[in-house]
Amino acid sequence: MKKLIILFAAFSFSMTALSCAKKNDASGPITIGGIFPLSGPVAVYGVEARNGIELAIEEINTAGGINGRTISIVSEDDEGNPEKTVNAYTKLVTRDKVGIIIGSLTSGCTMAMTERAQHQGVLLLAPAATMETITNAGDYIFRACFIDPFQGTVGGLFAADTLNAKRAAILYDNGNDYSLGLYENFAKAFISKGGEVVAREAYGTGEVDFNAQLTKIKNAEPDVVYLPDYYSTVSLIAKQLRAQGINTPVVGADGWDGLTENAGDEVLNGFYSNHYAADSTDPKVQNFVASYKNKFGTEPVSFAALGYDSMYLIRDAIQRAGSSESKAVRDALAQTQGSYVTGNLTFDEKRNPVKSAVIVELVKKDGKLSTVYKTTVNP
Questions:
Q1: What pTM does this model have?
Q2: In 235-311, which ranges are E strands?
């Protein structure tokens, strides 16, 4: 009897696996999962990324789909909360039966599900999670963005080489891995160019009064200030920084995307590393920006471009694999060599993209904040 039970269990498992493989390779629609912060303090990231993905899906389906199959996305809101990311992941995998997920947007939320995805063989492509260790969980984890060490280094080199700064101050969140990684690599790169970090001030996540730290920074007399955090916090810091009479250039990273809709003139003379520039003359960028504006009525920030590219990376991998089964798509994705909106892209051995970064400047155009291309930094 015991042997019969074991045999039945083995047969059931084999039939389940066969059923899943059949479903993944069927000729019907392809469904992928998406996890984004569609509400909460960094909702602009998630909304823009989802918009970019939806635009790509519309284009793909209009052009005949993937190997003749249409594609759709089931989107979940994690509110930028890692616990809710796990809940969203579980729902997508167990109830919606997806084997490919795009998401999440922040590093902490993405890290919350990487081990699960690797263990369960779910292909996870993170559009914008820049923390270096994101892909350490294994070979089912990819990202579409460059990593924090590169981005922090870009900021340090830009401050020294382009802004000709000699004395830098850094104000960072000591409870945020994103902020810490950027701070450490900015400082290292800036010092390597002969610069001096004259102030290193920290604050806790969720703080809103930075005047004590800014007083120390002002007294240190820097000629550039590095603010490695997300746009909601940076906008608060910038107001207090300018109110204290600190008028030096300020430099940041891709978390600043969203400032044009959520800040004022205090962020002028501000520069940040980013994944693409909307005013690029590259035809791929121009077509994307025009299509996005036509569909959504606004100029896309980098998270929209990264979401758009993520969908096309998945599309291209499925086409090459001739299958939507996660293992086959994983193997095809690793072989990517293509040109996308955010740059010419290949993946290294840790499934991080090898591509360039741009620096954009915050300016006033027609009475509104906007960004303009400043320079490109290659890997």
A1: 0.79
A2: 250-252, 270-274
